[in-house]
Amino acid sequence: MRVSLFVVVESIGTMLLSFAPTVQCHGYLSFPAAVYRDPYTATSFVTTISENIDLSTFGGKKWNDTPALNAAMFASSFRNSSYSSLREMIDPVVPGCGSTRLDVAPVNVTGASEARWQNDEEHRGFVDSHHGPCEIWVDEHRALHNDDCRAAFTSYPAHLPLDYDALCGGECRLTFYWLALHEAAWQVYKACAPIVNTNNAKLA
Q1: pTM for this model (two decimals)
Q2: How does pLDDT run across 86-141, given as a tens digit for each residue?
Q3: Which CATH class is domain 25-197?
Q4: In angstroms, rounded to a whole number, what is the distance separating the alpha carbons of residues 135 and 137?
Q5: Residue 148: which of 135, 157, 167, 162 has the closest Cα?
Q6: Keywords, A to Z (predicted)?
Q7: What is the per-residue pLDDT across 50-62, written as a single tens digit (0 to 9) for each?
């Protein structure tokens, strides 16, 4: 039986595609624009954690509910934990800046009033199913916290309000944290961007 060259090439191409790595498109820090070490995985989470990170706080609770209810359960539990911030919980698990780089030119945020997070594939800010808390820090100042950023910031991109003039004068570091709670394995996102603000109203 003769097999056409086209069929053979098409079959080989299909096999190769089946072995190709896939990108998990969740989102990225678009302003101030983070620079990712590997652009191919820029939208992926950095790692996962679970209730085991603090069983006294999170253990024995229902974590397989809807994403929104999981986020509400986390928020209620977190308020009774020893953590003062999401940063305090995530930094020991993801030290540094995750998959992002700081050895790049700072982004000028002078006159800006927000940060932006987005998913270009789905044209969302935060992915619909990925309910959970997020935080933004500028150096040692917490600039934003919300218990469910998917519910609170629904635009594309997600517009996260920040008062740069009150938080940064000169060069600073912005760090974004997000925990997606749609599964029992909680997805951890962390991204940094060096920034510069030419106004001089930085907190003492």
Answers
A1: 0.84
A2: 999 999 999 999 999 999 999 999 999 999 999 888 888 788 789 999 999 999 99
A3: mainly beta
A4: 7
A5: 135
A6: Signal
A7: 999 999 999 999 9
**6-19 burial, b if ≥16 CB within 10 A, otherwise e?**
eeeeeeeeeeeeee
From the list 85, 197, 89, the residue with the least C-alpha distance to 142 is: 85
Whether residue 143 contacts residue 109, with contact meaning beta carbons closer than 8 Å, is answered with no
The residue among 145, 175, 139, 164 whose CA lies nearest residue 34 is: 175
Q: Cα dist. 47→11, 61, 138 in Å?
A: 35, 21, 22
Adjacency order of strands within the sheet including 28-31? 28-31, 114-118, 158-161
